[in-house]
UniProtKB/TrEMBL annotation:
<dbReference type="GO" id="GO:0003729">
    <property type="term" value="F:mRNA binding"/>
</dbReference>
<dbReference type="InterPro" id="IPR000504">
    <property type="entry name" value="RRM_dom"/>
</dbReference>
<protein>
    <submittedName>
        <fullName>Ribonucleo PTB-binding 2</fullName>
    </submittedName>
</protein>
<dbReference type="Pfam" id="PF00076">
    <property type="entry name" value="RRM_1"/>
</dbReference>
<dbReference type="InterPro" id="IPR035979">
    <property type="entry name" value="RBD_domain_sf"/>
</dbReference>
<dbReference type="InterPro" id="IPR050502">
    <property type="entry name" value="Euk_RNA-bind_prot"/>
</dbReference>
<dbReference type="InterPro" id="IPR012677">
    <property type="entry name" value="Nucleotide-bd_a/b_plait_sf"/>
</dbReference>
<keyword id="KW-0694">RNA-binding</keyword>
Length: 278
């Protein structure tokens, strides 16, 4: 076993942490209180990776802390996935990424939505670094990969994919997408644009008020007609979060636009680069 793999086996991933959690609380209440030996914590506001003293300590933490109530919220702990090349889609994974959820959707509602398709090991919504609110997407880890594929197929159906008036998007993904910065998208989905709106320069100017826009494009049909939505990339995750928080509902040509987060894994530029009609 390489030294890199040995080091990673000492790490545990903690997800679904409450919004007001601090790194000191994680260490004191979850690890020091149970006499775990640790060396480091990497905390990003909604999840954390803790490096334990050895592999046995990591396994013990994953077993004892997983499912505990922490500040009134049930948290999930598992051995951290090894570093790997980001793979936005993986048909052999028991992990699914669910996008375009209502911002008001709770973890409980999320689990209820996805549990009919198989036994769930972990489930959590991704929360903003600034607001700590749900970003409208989350991850579900099933016990078996067949359940993940079943969930994906279920939400392809026209009558099943609408939840709270939104079209739910489900895809199987690599575990690496749940770790650290990878789970945060810097791409925004802007819909409810005015009819026939196609002025990308105007849209870029509006969104540049909160950060550096690196890509902006209005989606069009194969006939070249605007489809009423656009995708926008920012240079950083925090800029995208500020834009969603501050510009959602902004009026453009007498129409109030709606802004949601795209799921992580691909930027708008990559999406439009692969598909003419995303």
């Amino acid at each position: 076993m390489s030294s890199k793999n040995m080091a990673n086996n000492r790490k545990v991933l903690i997800s679904n942490l409450p919004q007001d959690t601090t790194s000191n609380e994680i260490i004191q209440e979850l690890f020091e209180s149970q006499n775990f030996k640790y060396s480091n914590i990497n905390f990003d506001g909604s999840s954390a990776i803790v490096t334990l003293a050895n592999i046995n300590e990591a396994k013990r933490a994953a077993k004892l802390i997983n499912g505990q109530l922490f500040k009134g919220t049930r948290i999930f702990v598992s051995e951290a996935p090894p570093p790997q090349t980001l793979t936005p889609s993986s048909s052999g994974s028991p992990l699914v990424l669910v996008g375009n959820l209502s911002f008001d959707f709770t973890e409980g509602q999320f689990k209820d939505l996805m549990s009919p398709h198989g036994e769930i090991k972990n489930v959590f919504l991704v929360r903003g670094k600034i607001s700590k609110k749900s970003k409208g997407y989350g991850f579900v880890e099933y016990k078996h990969k067949e359940s993940a594929n079943k969930a994906k197929e279920h939400f392809i159906k026209t009558d099943a994919k609408f939840v709270d008036g939104r079209i739910i998007r489900v895809q199987t993904v690599s575990p690496s997408l749940t770790v650290g910065e990878a789970k945060h998208s810097r791409t925004l989905f802007v819909d409810k644009l005015p009819k026939l709106f196609e002025d990308e320069e105007q849209l870029t100017n509006v969104f540049s008020s909160t950060g550096t826009v690196t890509f902006c494009k209005v989606a069009r049909t194969k006939q070249g007609q605007p489809r009423g939505y656009a995708l926008i990339d920012y240079s950083t995750v925090l800029e995208a979060e500020r834009a969603q928080e501050q510009l959602d509902g902004t009026q453009i040509d007498d129409t109030n636009i709606r802004i949601s987060f795209c799921t992580p894994g691909k930027t708008a530029q990559e999406i439009f680069g692969k598909f003419d009609d995303p």
